[in-house]
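Table 4 source record.
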Amino acid sequence: MEDSGKEKNKVAFLSVIAAIFLTSFKFIVGILTGSLGILSEALHSALDFVAAAITLFAVRFSDKPADSDHHYGHGKIENLSALIETLLLLITCIWIIYEAVSRLVSGKTHIEVTVWSYIVVLTSIIIDVTRSRALMRVAKKHNSQALEADALHFATDIWSSSVVLLGLICSGFGIYVADSIAALVVALIVVYVSYQLGKRSINVLLDRVPEETFLKIKSILDGVTEIERYHDLKVRAAGAEFFVELNIHIKPELNILQSHEIADRIETKIKHEILRCHVHVHIEPEENDPPAEQDSDHS
């Protein structure tokens, strides 16, 4: 757990440093050239910095163990972090769309394209490729939604920066309207990403069943021959943690020790397949005539 926290903290901290550098670089070049595409990217990077800082805070505190006030730990700090990042992305979209539409309507689309315009966008693409890969690798390794949200965020930044680069190339040939259009495309990309991140975050915060994990656990239980059936399987997520509850029915002739051994084997199997999973199995003796209405039971 300690090594997990160190690795997540390191990659989140490096993401914050990258965001500070890119924000400063883009704002300077955007102001000097008047490019809305670059300025929209600068604002995007500024919010990236806030999001990265929130993520750094989240991963530092999400691994804190459960205490008297938080019986299920602090994992949902990561999910709350991802939701805040979604809101920041939507704020970015509103500003970009407003500025782009205003320039297109007014016809004031002229910008100054310099070599620095290309340098800042290409630098942004290179940095975003590097940090999105690093974040996704650590996110998958430690099942961190906050880091995964950051990784997806910066992966879309690559596309948005590419669109801005295309707008700069067109502006270099005198097609200045392309810069504002590029900014609008960036906004649409950000809206899509915001929707995906927000939906996942809200689902976890509202304890919606993580379908993939639920089906995996159900498959494990269906393969356990020591139980007669099971029911009331409940799964919830909190950050990188999963919490599982279920009832199993066993043969009534088995004693308490044998019953607990079966429950322990089930817990071990689930924890082996799903990392950072907390499992609670309630044992019940099987009746001679089990209720027919429990269609989700294992038999």
